[in-house]
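Q: For a teaching handout, I want to show students what a protein-ligand complex looks like in token form. Below are the inputs, and the small molecule is alpha-D-ribofuranose. Please produce the holo structure.
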Amino acid sequence: MRVFNYGSLNLDYVYRVSHMVRGGETLAAAGMEIYLGGKGLNQSVALARAGVPVCHAGCVGEDGHVLTQYLDSQGVDTSLIRTINGKSGHTIIQVDDRAQNAILVYGGANHKQTREQIRQTLDTSNPGDILMLQNEINESVYLMEEAKRRGLRLVVNPSPMDEQIRHAPLETADYILINETEGNAISGQREASAILDWFSVHSPKTAVLLTLGEAGAVYQDGKGRIAQKAFSVVAVDTTAAGDTFTGYFVAGLVRGMEMEEILRQCAAASALAVTRNGAAPSIPSKEEVDRFLTGR
Ligand code: RIB
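A: Here is the structure, written as tokens, with alpha-D-ribofuranose included.
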């Protein structure tokens, strides 16, 4: 079974701020760094650091060599990434004193996927392979339809939430990974248990992983629910914590691990990620995760 991740690649311009800048306000940043990120890229890096081979598909612009080179250096297969005219995706990220972020995303090359490219990419897959999707590229819905037509296992992280993904055939996903905001936008429910109840009625074949920030996460499938607590750490930057969770989740599925153990590894990996700055560079290796979990 192979894992394909059709997703975004971004250059993240990250600014340290005392608080998120408000409309009409000019605010001096205390620091600035450029990191490699994008929900797609981060999730591929998480899989690779968890020790599971992944093939990343998508588009970068003329300035995107650094993104593909970085994925190469992490052991990710980049043969399905295309370079197109124009700029790569990028973000402006503010990280405040409480380690929270606010992200402005410019799609750039991430929004230039063509249906022909998608078909050619998926032609290299076989039934039973996994396709991972987020919502930072165009043609997410087409990708979902093609994945199902070809008998792929679909793992969807509908982030960031927008109208297109809200009305996408999410019930065709084998696994959906959401936070409370996304769960609320899809189901109209506020409480975690009500969100999960909604999915068991409206999307009974989809296993759901609902992340709850400091309250941990809950996994639900046809057999029931499993709760996972978050590990307590001192956070400096929460960017890519969710992507780390997703990548380690898929890595656990590929390895055929028990769900309790998968969730423990995901929680540990994302706890480590928030103790470090940046998106992709904050994602820990499997060895670091194992060490963190020893004796806990
Ligand atoms: O999930 C974190 C990612 O979201 C960042 O790396 C940024 O690129 C945005 O897409």
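A: Two things your students might notice: The mean pLDDT is 97. The pocket of alpha-D-ribofuranose is lined by residues 10, 12, 37-39, 42, 91, 103, 105, 136, 239-240, 242-243, 279 (CB under 6 Å).
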